[in-house]
């Protein structure tokens, strides 16, 4: 896999993040507008971010599947063995609530498996990136790459390898503190029987998968609907950090570029030993 592609994806995510922040931080942006309206800050930011990402990724030989292009017929997509799966602005509620927990998600998928992932959190200036066989990394305080470019090794040199060392004495699950589905409540009750105390931590968008990849949490159960572009980048990062995103109740991981782009329920946790 061309190493340049991860740098293209990082460039694309940083540029999209800058475009999103230009709307998010604009004092004239009216966050009261109906979120799906053409003139809403959310719609404008989403479109700008999508255009920025598409501009960078069209330099690569692979097609792009994103929330914007979700209506492409499967008869066309099914021939794509390698493709980009992108969510230009993941965490619409977080964007509208202005809590900063939204992300740009870019994944490269090969034969239904995410092999490269980039997640950028523009407000926090945090970048997560991973390449299969190279590892998963977190780079803090980044807003753009230097003119003249950087190498992947230079990027890795500025970053921390995940999972990060984290000494703690209790089990942590990622779950909404306010909206627990009955299935999630049951799952957490079972965790408590197994581990004693279980701390719940919450976050928006694909940051939830990153919390497990980083080692800040042990598990993230998701018993609610998500789409492939919500998880593909996080899944690549989790895999490269020694984790996996399993279909709930099964040993198989999530698969991508399916006919139905809706994900089944899933659990993010350490890779299981067979």
CATH class of the largest domain reads Alpha Beta
> How large is the share of residues in beta strands?
15-25%
Using the coordinates shown, work out and report the CATH topology of the largest domain: Fructose-1,6-Bisphosphatase, Chain A, domain 1
Count of discrete alpha- or pi-helical segments spanning 4 or more residues: 8
- Give the overall shape: globular
**Biggest sheet, in brief?**
7 strands, mixed
Structural class: alpha+beta
Give the overall pLDDT as a whole number.
93
* Computed Rg: 18 Å
Count every beta strand, where a strand is a DSSP E run of 2 or more residues.
12
CATH superfamily membership of the largest domain: Fructose-1,6-Bisphosphatase, subunit A, domain 1
Query: Low-confidence segments, ≥5 residues, pLDDT <50?
Result: none
Name the CATH architecture of the largest domain. Answer: 2-Layer Sandwich
Number of domains: 2
Strands in their spatial order, largest beta sheet: 1-2-3-4-5-6-7
User: What is the end-to-end distance?
Assistant: 28 Å
Helix/strand order = HHEHEHEEEEHEEHEHEHEE
The residue fraction in helices comes out at 25-40%
Folded structure, characterized:
This protein has 274 residues and is an alpha+beta fold. The protein folds into two domains: 3-162, 2-Layer Sandwich (Fructose-1,6-Bisphosphatase, Chain A, domain 1); 171-270, D-Maltodextrin-Binding Protein, domain 2. It is 33% helix and 24% strand. The strands form three sheets. It has a seven-stranded mixed β-sheet with strand order 1-2-3-4-5-6-7, with helices on both faces. Helix 7 packs parallel to helix 8 (228-240). The longest helix is centred in the N-terminal third of the chain and has 22 residues, at 3-24. The mean pLDDT is 93.
């Amino acid at each position: 896999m061309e190493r340049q592609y991860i740098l293209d994806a990082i460039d694309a995510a940083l540029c999209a993040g800058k475009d999103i922040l230009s709307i998010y931080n604009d004092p004239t942006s009216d966050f009261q507008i109906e979120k799906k309206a053409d003139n809403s800050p959310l719609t404008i930011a989403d479109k700008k971010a999508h255009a920025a990402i598409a501009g960078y990724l069209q330099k690569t030989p692979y097609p792009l599947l994103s929330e914007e292009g979700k209506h492409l017929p499967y008869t066309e997509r099914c021939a794509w063995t390698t493709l980009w799966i992108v969510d230009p602005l993941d965490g619409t509620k977080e964007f509208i609530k202005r809590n900063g927990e939204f992300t740009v998600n870019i994944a490269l998928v090969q034969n239904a498996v995410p092999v490269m992932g980039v997640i950028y959190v523009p407000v926090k200036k945090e970048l997560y990136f991973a390449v299969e066989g190279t590892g998963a990394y977190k780079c803090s305080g980044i807003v753009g790459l230097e003119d003249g470019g950087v190498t992947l090794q230079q990027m890795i040199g500025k970053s921390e390898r995940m999972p990060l060392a984290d000494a703690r004495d209790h089990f942590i699950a990622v779950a909404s503190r306010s909206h627990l589905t009955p299935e999630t409540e049951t799952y957490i009750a079972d965790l408590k029987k197994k581990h004693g105390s279980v701390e719940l931590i919450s976050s928006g968008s694909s940051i939830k998968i990153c919390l497990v990849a980083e080692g800040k949490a042990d598990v993230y159960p998701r018993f609610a609907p998500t789409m492939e572009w919500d998880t593909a980048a996080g899944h690549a990062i989790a895999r490269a950090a020694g984790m996996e995103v399993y279909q709930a109740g099964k040993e198989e991981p999530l698969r991508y570029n399916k006919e139905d782009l809706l994900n089944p329920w899933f659990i993010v946790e350490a890779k299981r030993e067979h």
